[in-house]
Amino acid sequence: MDVNRLRSDFPLLRRSFHGHPLAYLDSAATSQKPQVVIDTLSGFYSERNANVHRGVYALSEEATAAYESARERVAKFLHASDPSEIVFVRGTTEALNLVATSLGRSVLGRGDSVLTTIMEHHSNIVPWQLLREHSGTKLDFVDIDEEGALRMEQYETLLSKRTRVVTLTHASNVLGTVNPVGEVAERAHARGALVVVDAAQSAPHLPIDVQRLGCDLLAFSGHKVLGPTGIGVLWGRKELLRKMPPFMGGGEMIREVHTDRTTYADPPARFEAGTPNVGGAIALAAGLDYLEGVGWEELASHERALTDRCRRALDAAFEERIRIFGPPASHEREALLSFQLAQVHPHDIASLLDASGIAIRSGHHCAQPLMERLKVPALSRASFYLYNTPAEVDRFVEALRKAELKMLGQPVPVAS
Fold first, then answer.
1. Three-state SS at 220
2. N or C end of the chain: smaller count of CB under 10 Å?
3. For the segment 120-134, what is each residue's pLDDT rounded down to a tens digit?
4. Digit-coded pLDDT (tens) for 6-17
């Protein structure tokens, strides 16, 4: 994989901050965009901008064709059985809220159980908590072991005849853990439960085949897979989407509206009320073309090399003063490292690294229940993607070493 050639496709990576070239190590939050995505989005508004599905004039028909072509592209990306299984939303957050609300109106009742995990992003916790408050459903959490893997024996115990939904992240945005979705789904289906997958962190790094995963619903965000912000995807099995009631009401999601009743359109239109993000969907398709053009095996090899290099360097530089969370083997995790450095707050680390032009994440990463489980207030996180280089990893570790010395004067061991 020619990383230098790839980097030339990402204009923002040419920037410098505080007199240093940018080392962008926060792709788990959002990826940078290749020029083709930027040009596609600009080109839509310059040449094709019209509302879709509504106009009988040529420009509207052209915009509609491009929008529906993007749906077909996403269906191919996920190995969906039909483009009608693809619903465009604003992102994973909206998709999971849609699922919780719709299933709450159709499948879940008082006393029914939703089973999730302690490693979830808030987007896969809060919608189910809202449902619990309004509908009286239960919400249970599967714990993790000390390496960040799901406790599958506890999962089996928590599954019950009242479990209607199992919802989990495919890959943790904090631990990097890649969950065994296939096994989780098989056990859930044996109890008659539906399986919902948050693929926001896995879709940028792993080939997603919804047929092989065995889930019923899956969501991901465009902005993490080289696409624009404000566009995302919900995939659902066709027969399930047809049974689910709409999430929002308005234009385009109806068949007929009368003063005494409304009938709804078939999916996916049923779940796409109002004017959609047409340009975002089309640009997302361009991002997926670019990503798959890199090659999944090449991407995985590159990311594992960066992750291994970073972990070895951190262990050598900081020894017992650093704690890295999540699975120890790079093939068991996504390309991110969340860590705690003795007596240095994550926000201070991020601020000091920024002064060297290095962008990492710090905080609770929208995963406060996991922070409580790990007994930490916050963590620092460096995440890698196709455009990162070994030199950037080395810069990061050296800058972190200097940040520790600046804050403490001398290294301080982690308390035993």
1. strand
2. C
3. 999 999 999 999 999
4. 999 999 999 999
Cβ–Cβ under 8 Å, residues 201 and 169: yes
Per the rule left: phi > 0, alpha: psi between -120 and 50, beta: everything else, 365 is left
Residue 123 has what DSSP assignment? G
* Alpha-carbon distances, residue 67 vs 62, 280, 362 (angstroms): 9, 9, 37
Backbone angles phi, psi at 214, to 5 degrees: 80, 15
Query: Beta strands 163-169 and 217-221: pairing type?
Result: unpaired
Nearest to 370 by CA among 174, 181, 196: 174
With left for phi above 0 and alpha for psi between -120 and 50, is residue 304 left, alpha or beta?
alpha
Alpha helix (H) residue ranges in 191-295: 210-213, 238-243, 278-294
Dihedral (CA of 374, 205, 337, 226) sign: negative
Asked if 356 and 399 count as a contact pair (C-beta separation under 8 A), the reply is: yes
pLDDT tens-digit map of 47-62 = 999 999 988 899 999 9
Does this model's pTM top 0.85? yes
Distance CA 186, CA 166 (A): 11
- Cβ atoms within 10 Å of 94's Cβ, excluding its own: 22
Domain spans, the chain: 3-30+295-408, 37-292
| CATH architecture, range 3-30+295-408 | Alpha-Beta Complex (3.90)
Which residue, among 158, 44, 177, has the nearest Cα to 120 in the 3D structure? 177
Residues paired with residue 142 on neighbouring β-strands, in sequence order: 117
Choices 3.30.430.20, 3.40.50.970, 3.40.640.10, 1.10.3300.10: CATH for 37-292:
3.40.640.10
Nearest residue to 280 (alpha-carbon basis) of 225, 349, 321: 225
State the chain's maximal CA–CA distance in angstroms.
74
- Residues marked as catalytic: 366
Structure tokens at 71: 């749906």
Query: Could you tell me which of 170, 160, 198 has the C-alpha nearest to residue 334?
Result: 170
How many whole angstroms separate alpha carbon 285 and alpha carbon 383?
24
